[in-house]
Amino acid sequence: MILLGILIGLVLLLLLLILFCPVRYRASAEKKRTEGIREIRASGEVSWLLHIISARAFWEEGKIQTKICVFGVPLSRLKQKLSGKKKKTKTDTSKKDPSVQKKQTEQEKYSRSYNSEEKEETSVIIKEDTTPVEVEEIEGHRYTPDLLEKEPEDKISEILPEQTDACDERDYRREDGISKEIDTSVSEHKETENKNRKRIKDLILKIAGRIKSVLGKFLTVVRNALRVPSRILKKIQKFALTIRKFCDKINWWREFIDHPRTRAAISFLWEDGKKLIHHVLPTRITGKITFGSEDPAVTGTVLALLGMTIPFHKNKIMVNPLFDGENILEGEIFLKGRIYGVVLIKIAIELYFNKNIKYVIHRWRHKEVNHGERE
Q: How far apart are CA 159 and CA 154, in angstroms?
């Protein structure tokens, strides 16, 4: 129970800090007359909870630099310190532990001994007999003396009658070859006749296919020509439907904007938007600006534009126009402000629970329903 109470208290404290501790911001810019436009110096800072968490940005010499700090210490330094500590711990453990060094030396010795044994084993060379072997020929067949000694004379004598049988087979094959040549000549004659017949059939089929294709193309052209007026009518009908839909959309938008509930929602959004802008705008602004141009018309237009910003800074920025015919720009600006989370949440709740805004969202999702059906 005590732990639950502590956790609930911490959550409530965080919520209160988020709601009532503001996010503060400040910015400054400086430009000297001697420097160019690219050499403007500017800086900005956003902080929360008494600068415990802050983010800074600097613009110098056309470059942007950013820093994120926690308790005034940048995150880059914290990362470097943490990475340095991890590296030191790894190196120290490897140096201080003698057991690691002993294991490494034992492994090296074992690997050396194992490699030496492998080399000794590979150094052994197997010698083979390379003595020449005598070969004897018996009626066209070669035999080694070992085979002659092992085999009896009966087997050797069996080889000779096999050769005589082979001669008889050759004579029989010659007679068969003459008969086969006669048969092949007859079959070739028949094949040529069949090929000629197939060629004639193929030519007839090709001619018939071409005639069919020509007739089919002609029929398609005729059909397309007959369909042209119907297609023109369909396009005219589609064009008329698009015009009607466009007119219906214009009427829908007109009814939607003229409806009293949509007007009430727009006015409510405008009021809340003004409150939010007023809250977000800086509370303090100070500065001086002097500018001039070769063309006095340009200085006049710039002065008119700066005059439109008077409601925002309440004439706290001094503007000095110069009509001397020179391009001049110098000055300093400083501003700061704050944003409370309570104000943002309050505006969000008001927008969420407003009935007129809910009605507008519902009408936007269901455009097919008329305005008078659901109010």
A: 9
